[in-house]
Amino acid sequence: MSDEALLRVESVSKHFGGFTALSNVSTYVKPGERFGLIGPNGSGKTTLINCVSGLLRNEEGKIVFDGHDITEMKPHRRTAAGIARSFQIPRPFHTMSVVENLMIPSEFVGHHRGERFDDHADAMKILETMGMADKADDPTTDLTQIELRKLELARAMAAKPKLLISDEAMAGLTGQEVDEVIDILFKMNEQGITIIMIEHIMRAVMRFSQRIICLDAGQLIAEGTPDEIVKNPDVERAYLGSDDG
Amino acid sequence: MKYLFEIVALLLIVAAFVMTQVISNQFVFFVGFVILQYVVMATAWNVLGGYGGYVNFGSAGFLAVGAYTSVALINFLGVGLIEQMIAGGIIAGLLGLGTGYLTLRLRGVYFAIATLALAIILETVVAHWDYVGGAAGTSILPARKPELLGILFVDRKDGVFTNYKEFLFFLMVAVAVLSVWVARWIENSKLGRGLNAIKDSEDAAECMGVPTLRLKLYATTISGVMMGVAGAPLASYLTFIDPLSAFNLEYAVNAIAMPMIGGTITWIGPVIGAILLGGAQQWASLFISSELNLLIVGVLLVVFVIIAPGGIVGWFKKSR
Amino acid sequence: MATFIDLLLNALVVGILLGGFYAALSIGLSITFGLLDVVNIAHPTILILGAFVAFILNSQLGLDPILAGLIATPVFYGFGWVIYQLYYNSFEKSGETDSLRGLAFFFGLLFIIEVGLIIQFGVDHRLVEAPYIGDSANIVIGEEIDVAIPYRLLVAFVAALIATFAIQLYLTRTFFGRAVRAVAQDMMALRLMGVDPIKVKRIAFALGMATAGVGGALMIIVLPIEPSVGRLYIGNVFAIVVLGGLGSVKGTLYAAVIIGIAESIVATFFGPSWAPAVSFGILLLVLAVRPEGLFGKTAGAH
Q1: Which positions in chain C touch B302 (Cβ < 8 Å)?
Q2: In terms of pTM, does the model score above 0.80?
Q3: Could you report the predicted ipTM of this complex, rounded to two decimals?
């Protein structure tokens, strides 16, 4: 099974000084899968995602994407290889307009793959699917919270990823807005993009994911379908043992 | 018109040449040289600082490296001015490349402080290098009949220019035009867009496929080359050079203040800033006192960063 | 005939004394830059301003320079209060802190103060008069060793230690001091406690600036001052604050002693003109190798 995996994380560990942020974590994500990553605050979710996207380098273990070992690869090369991510706290290119934000990955990744596509038309198409076409020429500083979250996802989409990592794209949004973001992620998945969703909002991650893993204190403590995860006593303990559920 | 900028640039160079042939008042070239040097410094600073968001506090160090490369070459080989400028550009470019690698570990204010430190360390080293005059400085006698490819540049009777000031002025016009052309090219290129992304959020840029390190190295190197070329003729212009004047913090503060006052987003901002601020300073130091010109820079820098973050250019865009 | 051991001992003693003195110069920056993240590159020049206040009070009224520095402290506190308010309104209020524009702001401020002083006082070196300036205590051991302890350095050292410990106590033992340290870590927690973080930052910045009163006085006790020497201290104070681990008072003291000894030894054996390269060199090295400093908190999870 793991041979057909799009992403394989093999015994990855990450330390900060004396603090162990990830300890021997192994998992895999299948092509086209909707994959959930949960765990209490400080459990290592973001660290794991940073190791996958390359912003952090794991000292131990291996990360394999699309059949290639990418452990030593720089983040921009990983993006070119097909991994794109959004940021938990939106980091728009704030001196650019919305559509220009999308044209950055479009231009740089497109060049890397040796393809040429019409950056602007491409970006507009993505914005349309997000319902943001009318905001294309607005400065990002005028956007609302939900629009910033959507921009994060749209920009990641503009990198034409095989794997999209959505890092808490819904924190702080209203119920209706959460549904809106989930619908967008479903749509992306229907286009064949594999999605890793990191989320605190249980309702969202349970509804969206086909398979979920749970981290606690840097260790993988559970893996299974949403139903299995809900019933898992270790997961319950991890969440009840900490302040935030 | 597609090549409007290039045509204007060429016209400027031609006009500068005509000026050297027609105007006999050497004072024009003396002052013009300084302002043009600032155009280059401000433009160079802006390539890294304005486009890429990496603030260089050590501009004086790059300029001085260009200047002292010339001094060493004059002492060692006796080469001409144009060769000095090329060499100054190369050495300062290499220094820029080295500075670029600092960005691997240092961002924001830490990078700025590190560049300042770098400049002062270089100053201390040069002050102890007796071959180029040490702390006391050294006098420079420009080559008597500078020549390249059979063209005699400076000679009272047969030269293209009748004296050195005209020659230096003309060279600086060419360097300034070329620098601004390069900056404008960067601004409209993939490099410029990538640098802008780095300025806005480096991590996001890297994760969106921007090869951040490579682009930063391009920017620091190009910026270093420009500053080195601008600094190379300094010794010939002053006919004397010492570490205190070459590494003067005035260059560093001007290189920051001029783009910030003119506007850092487009190539025209540093040019406007350098002409206005450079002009005002020349005027102040000639007619009032040389201390006052630093006061002008300080006050304008503070006022502009507070009330007009986009500089003069940004101000115009907003009021339009 | 000065022996190697004699030179080394003298260099060490002067280095340690210098270190204490440097700590007094850096402690304000350790608060403003280290704890509040305000990159006050004009700090050394504001110290020079303090030195000139001491100079005026000393030469006009015959006041002891340290007393003059203490008198000036509230004025510098007020000055800091105003500067922070301006800084906050211009660069922090909008949410996203624009620290690079803030840095340019302080760079401009540096030149305004420096040129202001030059216009008023010229570029001559100024000095103060006090009974402890000029003489030194000599400790003679055997025939070879004669360690000279200049009183002016000793006075500066002791005053610096007192000031440093006072600030350390204030930051660790009082509610407000703890609030200042909390500002550096968790603005949200402060808000939840009902404390206005902006107010805390304003007072803390003013406090950091207030140290320039006494710091400046010590500066002019230790050596004659002219307006532009402030620039050379940028290396010292930033090296010390970064090396000391950004905002740790104890770390600042240790780092200051390290820099003091390094400068003193280099000055003794290679000549004083190499001294600037020492502090700036250490600064560059520390920045490049370990941005969190030697005595600072280890890097967190990000």
Answers
A1: 105, 108-109, 112
A2: yes
A3: 0.89
